[in-house]
Amino acid sequence: MGDINSKGITQNTFDAIVIGSGISGGWAAKELCEKGLKTLVLERGRNVQHLVDYPTMAKDPWDFPHRNHLTLNMKEDNPIVSKCYAFREDAMQFFVKDKEHPYIQEKPFDWIRGYQVGGKSLIWARQTQRWSKYDFEGPARDGFAVDWPIRYDDIAPWYSHVEKFVGISGNKDGLDTLPDGEFLPPWEMNVVEKAVQKRIMDNYKDRNVIIGRCAHLTEAKEIHLQQERGKCQARNLCQRGCPFGGYFSSNSSTLPWAAKTGNFTVQPDSVVHSIIYDEKKNRATGVRVIDAHSKKVTEYYAKIIFVNAAALNTNLILLNSISTRFPNGLGNDNGLLGKYVAFQNYRGTLSANMDGFLDSYYYGRRPCAVMMPNFRNVHKQETDFLRGYMVFFSAYRSAGHAGATQMGEAFKEAQSEPGNWGVSMMMQGETIPKETNYVSLSKDKKDDWGMPLLTISVDYDDNDEKSLKDFLSQGAEMLDKAGCKNITTNDSKQAPGLDIHEVGGVRMGKDPKTSLLNKWNQLHACPNVFVTDGACMTSTGTQNPSITFMALTARAANHAVEEMKKGNL
Amino acid sequence: MKRRDALSTMAILLGGAIVSTDVFFSSCKSNVKEEYFAPEDISLLDEIGETIIPATASSPGAKAAKIGDFMKVYVTDCYNAADQQTFFAAVREIKNLSQKKFEKDFMKLTVPQRQEVLAELEMEKHSKVESKSKAPGAEGDAIQTGKQQEANKTSLNAVSNRYFSMLKQLTLLGYFTSEPGATKAMRYIQTPGSYKGNVPYTKGDKAWAT
Question: Scanning every residue of chain A, which has its alpha carbon at the shortest distance from the alpha carbon of B174?
C-alpha cells in the first residue's frame, strides 16, 4: 500500500490518537482533551451527532410501517444481527448489517457491532455495576487465566470519577459483592418485585435482591446540565438516541465535552489499518488509516495511542500491526494476542406468573431490572463449577387477559386491560477465559478495505453448562419460594456473542510472558499504546462490563498524561 | 393464544417495553402480488378485523385503525411464502363459509353472522395447511418455552387453528399499535416523565400500550 500523506506530517500530527469513539474511546478523548492534549479520534463509521442524527427518537408505534418488527428481507439479509433484541425497525440504523462487514465463524458467534460515531454507546443496555474485590481476586483464587494486576482499591476512585460524570442511578445497598457508587436516586421496584425481594431474602440469608443500577439521570446534577443533558423521562426508547440526553452515550456526553476543550478532532469514515511502529524509538508513532469511501490511505502521528475499537476489532488492529520487531502483531511477544477471549453466559431464562396484586399497576417505563449480585462461590468454592452469575428479574402486567371469547366487544375489552402479573428472570454468567477461545486473522480473505477478515473461534464449555443448570434450578426454586406459579425454565442455546459482552484477547497482567498489558493498560512491549476497551479484560465478572471499561480508560488516560509530563512517553 | 403472553425477556428486563418480539421466519421469498390486495380485499380485511375488534362506545375499532392496509403491509413484507399462503387461504375460507352458511358475501352479512363465520373458522381443522413455521403474528413464539406453548394450545382451544389465530393476531398487533388502538382502547404516553412502581389499579382501567 502507498503511504501517501497529502496533508503533510505536521498537519497530521496530534498529541494523542484514540481509535474508536464508543463508550471507552469517548472517555479517552474526554480525559486527554481536558488535560490539554490535542487529540484525534478516529471512527470507522459515519458521523452521528447527538439529536441531529436520531431520526426515530420521536416516533410513535404507528409511525413504523411494520410496527417495529423486522421485514422478512431484513431478517434474511441479516441472520446474525437480527437475533439481537434491540435490532428492530426503530434502531436498525445503528447496527452493522451482516453483509457489510463479514467475519469468519469457526464456531457460531453472533458478533453484534455498531459502526458510527458513538459506537455501541448509542444502543447499549446501560446497566452499570462496579466490580467487587471478589471479581478482581477471582482468577488468582480459582487458578484460571492470570492474576489481575490491579485490585478493587486501584479502580474504586476511577469508578467514582466516571460515575459522577455519567450519572448512575442506584441504591446504596452496602454490599461487598457489588460495591456502592456515586449514585443518583434509585429507580423503584413495583409491588410484585418487592414481594419477590422480601420472600427471597427471607428464605436465603446470603442472597440479596436490589434495584438495578443504570446510566440514566434520575436527577440531572450541575455536571449533567453542563453537558446539556436532562432527566430520564422513563420512555425506554433509548436505542433510538435520547432527545433528553437521559442516558449516557459518547454522543450525548463525552464527545461534545471533549469538543468544548478546543483540543478535539473527530474523524468519521476512517478505518484504521494498523499502528505504525518505529523500531529505532521502540515506540508506536502513529496509525495508518483507510478512508472508508475513497479507500485512500493516510498516516496520522501522535505520542500516545489509545486503542478503543471495541474488544474484537481492537484485537484485529493489533494483529494487523505487523513490523520486523512484531511479526505476529503489535506487542505480541508471547503469542497470546487474540487468545483468552471470553463473554457472558445469557442462555438461561425463566418465566412465571404471580397471583394477586391486581389492585396495583405501574406508571412509566423503567430502564432497568431488579438484580441479585452473584451469590455463588463468593467467599470460597462451593459448587461443581467455577464462579457464578448475576440474576436479573422484572415483574410486569402484560396487556390482555384470557377470556372465553375470541372476538367482539368483550374480547376487545379483555385485550385492552392489563392481565395478571408475570415475572421474567435471566442470568448473566461469568465465563472462564481460555486459550482455545481466540480470534485470529484470515490468511486469505479480506474485506472491502483490504483488511483481513477476523476469524472467531469461541465456544461454551462444561463450566458454562453447569453454571446454566445451576441458575435454572436455583431460579426456579427462588421463584417458587417467592410464591410464583407456572414456573418455566428455558435454555436459549444462543451462541456466544449475542450477549454483546465479549472481552479479552489483549489481557492485562503482571507478567509480560503471560499477558499483553500492564496495570496501566500499556502494551508491555510498546508502552505508548494503551488498550482500554473490553479487549483488556483478564476475566469477565458477572457485571455488565461498560462502567469498568470507562473507569479503566479514565485511569489509564490520566496515567498517560502524567507519564508524558515526566518525559516517559 | 393469550396476547403478549410471550415477551422478549430482554425487553421486559430492560423496562418492559412490551412490543412483540420477532418470530423466526423460514427462508422463503415473498411472492405477494399487488393484485392480491385489491381495494375490495382491503375492505374485506377491514371488516374481518372489525368483527374481531369492533368499534365500541369508548374507542374506534380495527377498521378505523386501517387494519386492512396494515395487514397488506405486514403480510407482504414480514411473512414468508408459506405463511402468506395460509393467510390467503384463510381469507378464501371466510368467503367460502359466508356463502355456505348464508349464501352471501361476508361484506353483506350482519355482525352476528360475521361472528358466526369466524367462529366456524375457529372451530374448523385445517391440518393440511399447517405450516411448519411459527404462527405469524403470534408474538414472541421464539422465546416461549415448549411448556408455555403447550399450555396456550390446550387452554385456548383443543382445535389448533391457524386460519383464525393468524387473523386474530394480525388484528391485535395492528390495532393496538395503531393510534386509535394505542391511545383510545389502551393508554399511551410516549414521554411518561417518571416511573412509579405502585399506582392504584381499578378493574376496567386500560393497560399501557407500550
Answer: A67
pLDDT tens sequence across B103-127: 999 999 999 999 999 999 988 754 3
Rounded to two decimals, the pTM is: 0.92
In the structure grid, which three cell numbers stand for residue A143, read together? 487458578
Q: Do B182 and A60 touch (CB under 8 A)?
A: yes
Contacts of A88 in chain B (CB under 8 A): 19, 22
Counting every residue written for chain B, the total comes to: 210
Q: What is the DSSP secondary structure assignment for residue A71, as one 8-state letter?
A: P
Residue of B nearest to A216 (CA): B194
Q: Which residues of B touch A402 (CB under 8 A)?
A: 2, 155-156
Rounded to a whole number, what is the distance in Å from the CA of A347 to chain B's nearest CA?
A: 11
Residue type, A560: A
Count of beta carbons in the 10 Å neighbourhood of residue A395: 28
Secondary structure (DSSP) of chain B:
--TT-S--HHHHHTT--------PPPS------GGGG-HHHHHHHHHHHHHHS---SSS--TTTTTHHHHHHHHHHHHS-HHHHHHHHHHHHHHHHHHHHHHSS-GGGS-HHHHHHHHHHHHHS--GGG--SSPPTT-TTGGG--HHHHHHHHHHH-SS--HHHHHHHHHHHHHHHTSHHIIIIISB--S---S-EEEEE--TTPPPB--
Rounded Cα gap, residues A281 and A384, in angstroms: 50
In angstroms, rounded to a whole number, what is the distance separating the alpha carbons of residues A248 and A215? 6
* A-interface mutation test, from B9, B21, B165, most A Cβ less than 10 A away: B9
* Secondary structure, 3-state, A400-440: CCCCCCCCCHHHHHHHHCEEEEEEEEEEEEECCCCCCCEEE
Taking the CB of residue A380, how many other CB atoms lie within 10 A of it?
6
- Which residues touch A438 (CB under 8 Å, ≥6 apart)? A338, A339, A340, A341, A457, A458, A505
ipTM over 0.90: yes
Look at residue A75 and give its three-state secondary structure.
helix
Asked if A82 and B22 come within 8 Å (Cβ–Cβ), the reply is yes
- Considering only the beta carbons, identify the residue of B192, B203, B209 that sits closest to A233: B192
> Are B54 and A406 an interchain contact pair (Cβ–Cβ within 8 Å)?
no
Q: Please say whether the beta carbons of B154 and B16 come within 8 A.
A: no
Single out the residue of A15, A519, A517 nearest to residue A305, CA to CA.
Answer: A15
Residue B36: is it exposed, middle or buried by C-beta count within 10 angstroms (0-12/13-18/19+)? middle
Residue A228: name the closest of A259, A188, A264 by CA. A259
Strands A348-354 and A210-211: unpaired
**Mind spelling out the 3-state secondary structure of A541-561?**
CCCCCHHHHHHHHHHHHHHHH
Distance from CA of B128 to the nearest CA of A (A): 23
**Contact between residue A215 and residue A380 where contact means Cβ atoms under 8 Å apart:** no
Collapsed DSSP state (helix, strand, coil) of residue A119: helix
CA count, 13 A, side-chain hemisphere, A72: 22
> Are B206 and A397 inside 8 Å of each other by CB?
no
Residues of chain B contacting A409 with CB distance shorter than 8 Å: 54, 56
Residues 6+ apart with CB under 8 A from A439: A312, A315, A316, A319, A338, A341, A454, A455, A456, A457, A458, A505
A276-325 pLDDT tens trace? 999 999 999 999 999 999 999 999 999 999 999 999 999 999 999 999 99
pLDDT at position A6 is 54
- In order of their start, the domains of chain A are 1-59+107-166+247-342+501-569 (3.50.50.60)
Q: What is the pLDDT of residue B34?
A: 62
Distances in Å between the Cα of B71 and the Cα atoms of B106, B118, B136 are: 18, 17, 12
In A, minimum Cα distance to B13 occurs at A369
Residue A492 pLDDT exceeds 90: yes
